[in-house]
């Protein structure tokens, strides 16, 4: 990273804790490759100081920040405006700082869509989609799929009330048909994309989040879990020669989207990906 001086543009991450994050490595590698005099720093912001931290952004001349757990929802009252996706999802992970406003974005959701496009050459437009898990990530992914024109969504969660809340939210912004499945149901054979947005897969002993016995061989499986290179779901799908992708690409492309919002520049995606692979798996691609 270039030496920090009086002209260095500062970017960062608000979260609590932030010690685990790979975002500084990813963004600082991109700044260095593009020759930008900029630095990305993690800021441990406790929940009771979030308002103070947001108010400090302009005073400190910070150019943009990401927001992570536990602040993605609670940061919203401190912002001036929200993107359509952030407003619908009810969560923000990126703050754009303009001369007149602090604008909240959700690049997690669009990062997922972009990961599918870049890795699999896949678009959800006009396609039936299945999503297991209707919490934060699953909620965001489902809303974005609807906004991007998925023909139908089948959602499943152990908390059926949460699944129905997601269905009702999507009905306010999209004509996409949404069905709520029981956890015992098989993934519908017609779906083109099956997504695991539950924590199942983070440990070797976890059961499959859903059965893919009826899934077409031409479908795509995406598992947002990324702490291991290959979850049981991914292995099961690949053993059937079904195209399957892990969640590190979603992390990558949410960062790419944030970088573009802040700088207006196209970041070096290959470099960012290599840094993430090294940080998470200890290998480079």
From TrEMBL:
NADP(+) binds at residues 224, 247. GO terms for molecular function: NADP binding; shikimate 3-dehydrogenase (NADP+) activity. The active site is at residue 72. It is an enzyme of class 1 (oxidoreductase). Involved in the biosynthesis of the chorismate, which leads to the biosynthesis of aromatic amino acids. Catalyzes the reversible NADPH linked reduction of 3-dehydroshikimate (DHSA) to yield shikimate (SA). Belongs to the shikimate dehydrogenase family. This is Shikimate dehydrogenase (NADP(+)). It comes from Candidatus Auribacter fodinae. The gene is aroE.
